[in-house]
Structures are given as C-alpha cells and as structure tokens.
Amino acid sequence: MWPLATGPEVTATVDGYPTVASIYSATGFCHRATPVAVYADALAAAMANGTDHDAVISIAPLDFPAEGDALEIERQFLGPMSYVHGVPILLKDNIETADMPTTAGSLALVDNAPGRDAPLVARLREAGGLILGKANLSEWANIRSSQSISGWSAVGGQTRNPYAPERTPCGSSSGSAAAVAIGLAPAAIGTETDGSITCPASVNGVVGFKPTVGLVSRTHIVPIAHSQDTAGPITTTVEDAAIVLTVIAGSDPLDPATAEADARKVDYRAALDADSLNGARIGVMRFLVPNYSAETQAVFEANLQVLRDAGAELVEITEAPADFRQIGGWEITVLLTELKHDLNLYLASTDPAQVKTRTLADVIAFNAAEPRETVLFGQDLFERAEATGGLTDPAYVEARERSFRAAGPEGIDRMMAEHGVIALTAPTTSRAWTNDPDDDDRSQGSASRLAAVAGYPHLTVPMGFDRGMPVGISFMAGQWDDATVLSLGYAFEQRTRARRAPTLQTIH
C-alpha cells in the first residue's frame, strides 16, 4: 500500500480543474496550486514558442482535462492513493512508457514504441501519478562520444540552461532538470550512471537524488551499465524528491539488483527530520574542494557554517581514498564493456519492425550513415565499447572489482568508518560552463564519482550561486543510507532555502 496523505484537505479549482493542492494538503507538492491540465497546456505552448529551452521531446497523448477530472473524482470517492496522486511528472526519454516512443535521443530509436511501461512508470501510474511527457537528454545518456555536448540529442536538439541559455544544462538528464527548473512539471525522473542526475540538478538550481543502485528498477530503461545505472527524482524540494522516491522504489523480478529493495525501502518523506543535522557528524571531503571554482568554494564554505549552526559536527577529510585517482580508468572499462552487453540485450527486446538497429554494431553503422547524428561529434565511445571482450574478459572483471572496492569499501565506507561520520559532503560542481567548444570556460569539480561507482546514494541541494549561476551541495553515504542522506539534505534546505527560480524566459 502506498503511503496516504493525512492532513486536512484543500478543495480548490481553477477554471473548473482540480489543483495539485486540492488532491491533498499533506504532500510537499501542495504549494503548487496549479491545475493538472494547465501543465499540459503550458508545456505545449512552451514547446511551440521555444520557451521550454528544448527540455521536452514529447507530450503524452492524454486528454489532460478529463484525466484531471477523473483523478479528482477518484480522490473524492476513494481517497488519495499516494503522495503523487494527480501530480504531473516528466520522464527522461530513455524510460519506456506504453503510450509514447522511447528514443534515448537517437534517430535510430525514433520509432521505438514497444507498448510497455517500465516498472517505475507502472508504480507511478498505480500511485495516481500523471505521466506528462518525455524530457530531452544527452543522446544515449552521454555515452556515445568523449566529445559530446551535454543536453544535445538528434531527436530533441540542444537543451538550454534556463539561467543562461548559452551555458550547459549538464548531462545527461538535462531536459528533466531544466523542465523542473522552469516549472514545466513539479517533478521529473532522470537516470544516472555517473553524475547524470546530480550535475544537471545542480547547474539548473533544483534538487536531484541518485538512489542506491538496486533501490529502483532499471527494467525497460535504455541502459549504459548495470553496475552503476539507476533512475531517480528531480524536483524543486527535497521533500518532493522523497515523495517520488517512496513511490518508485521497490523490487522487480526482472532486475536482480533490486532483490533487497522491498526490504530496504521506507517512507522517505516520513523519515525527513528538519533537526537531523543537530548532533550529526559529517565528513567534509576537503580533498575534492580545490578542484572547484573559487566562487563555488566560497559558497560552500559559507554553507559549512550553516551546517555547524544547525548543530552538525564537521570532520575534515583531507586525504583521498588510496586508489581514488585510478577509479576513473577502471570505471570507463566497466562502462564500455557493460554498454555493449546491456545495450545489445535491450535492443534485442524491442520490436524489430520499429527498431532496425538490433545491436550496438548496427547503431554504429546507422550513425555513420546518418549525417544528422554526427553533425556535432562522433561516436568514439561506442566504437571502443564494440571492441570490448564481454563480461568474462579478465580486464573487465578486474576493473569492476577494483573500481567498486576503491569507491565503496575502501572509499566511502572507509572514510565514514575511520572518521566516525554518518555522511559526506562536498560541492556538487561549479557553475554551468558554456556549450561553445572553443570557449575555455570548462567544468570545474565534481562530487559524483565515488557514489556513482560504489552505487551509493547521492543528493544535491541548491546552496547558492556562482557568478549568478546556481550551484548545489552534495550529501552522500553508504549503501541503503538513502533516508539518512535525504533527511540531512532536507534539514539543510529548511535552513537555507537557497533555491531561486530562473527569471529568464520562465513559464510560471
């Protein structure tokens, strides 16, 4: 049974349509008194006039006024099914739905409509969530080329950062983050292999949560690598992220990694505690901090004082894990090897009448013959993946064992144990860089790798601005510590409320 709202109801309509607030007032979504149908109308208008910043690829084929009315009637007679009952949600376009194509941004998948919902989508629908449409992304989730441009896909074009359109939205869940930032939906689902939820959330000024790998099903999601892939929520508040996670988390017999999910999941919203920083020992990953811009470092230092003022005891961690610098090399071996294996399995599961590219090799050949795919960059990572030796290759087996051990047991776990802390923190990344390949303004600093490679939870929360562009603070911890990470981020958010919506071409 999904957790139900318990607070007093607020009945409200606009132009006859039930507002999100009227569904139930106990949810974190209650502050958005926006009619369900209005989101669809606003999204369609934004896509038509360009103010969606190319964040969205498609709108679900629904009669949204009727859907909104039906949800309101259902709520009145049966009660709210969950905290997402009636809430419009966007999905990154590598997540399958029964009613829309799933393209991963590639022209090779433009007709990919196998008529099935990914399990996480089925969970959202079962809980009364309204799937609004599909968000743009970095094509193939940013694994095609080492020279890729974040937020660009051949299907959806270039997603723009709503705070400064000439700057990156970061990848690969760029459209999901940008759409939430400008109010096209109150929540979106992104996916992450390494930084693809947390980076776009940070540079677009929203909350992004990468759960423990295995908490959320990956079935019917276009994959990169099963060791690190996960889906997770992107929202404007930590409370909303906790609400969405509570719905999408759970075991899936088709995804062995989720075997423990039902036993491990909790009501993440109920676990939030605004006083959770008081007495909490948190490790500051000082060895990462010099990599960020001076402005982001200054914002981070100011927010460390916020943590102290909230009662947290901060512990300086000055030395990186022993094999920290080697993790990246091992990681790319793992990702490329698993990409070939996992993508071949996915493509084989699609309808051959809709998807002519049945293997990674076929996709490579398709791209080589399709100028629209390679107009901006090539596919060197695809080509390297095709040359890998499979999951029994000793080089892969060794890389996976070493990367996981260095990031998890000898990385996050050891740092937490040796310093007696319950979580770790660092800036998520610096301000968004430009999309101009000739510009020397490049990305600076990232906190994502350790949690990504280990498969551990990682939350980013807006903490301020770097030269007018939003930046986030990261909280991470050990496997299945998702509730702890969310609660610490929530307590921080309640004290700072640092998020400021973009003013450039906003929708709401």
Report on this model:
The protein is α/β, with parallel strands linked by helices. Helices cover 34% and strands 14% of the residues. Strand 6 and strand 7 form a beta hairpin. The protein is globular.
Please state the oligomeric state of the protein chains shown: single chain
> What kind of sheet is the major sheet?
11 strands, mixed
Q: Quick check: average pLDDT?
A: 90
| Structural class by secondary-structure content | alpha/beta
Q: What's a quick, concise take on this entry?
A:
The chain is an alpha/beta fold. It has 15 helices and 15 strands.
Summarize the topology:
Layout: E1 13-14, E2 17-18, H1 20-23, H2 36-49, E3 56-59, H3 64-78, E4 88-92, H4 119-126, E5 130-135, E6 152-153, E7 157-158, H5 174-181, E8 187-192, H6 198-203, E9 207-210, E10 230-235, H7 238-248, H8 261-264, E11 281-285, H9 294-309, E12 313-317, H10 327-349, H11 360-369, H12 380-386, H13 394-419, E13 423-427, H14 449-454, E14 458-466, E15 469-476, H15 482-496
Parallel strand pairs: 4-5, 4-8, 11-12, 11-13
Antiparallel strand pairs: 1-2, 3-5, 6-7, 8-10, 9-10, 9-14, 13-15, 14-15
Helix pairs in contact: 2-3, 7-15, 10-12, 10-13
Tags for this entry?
15 strands; alpha/beta; 34% helix
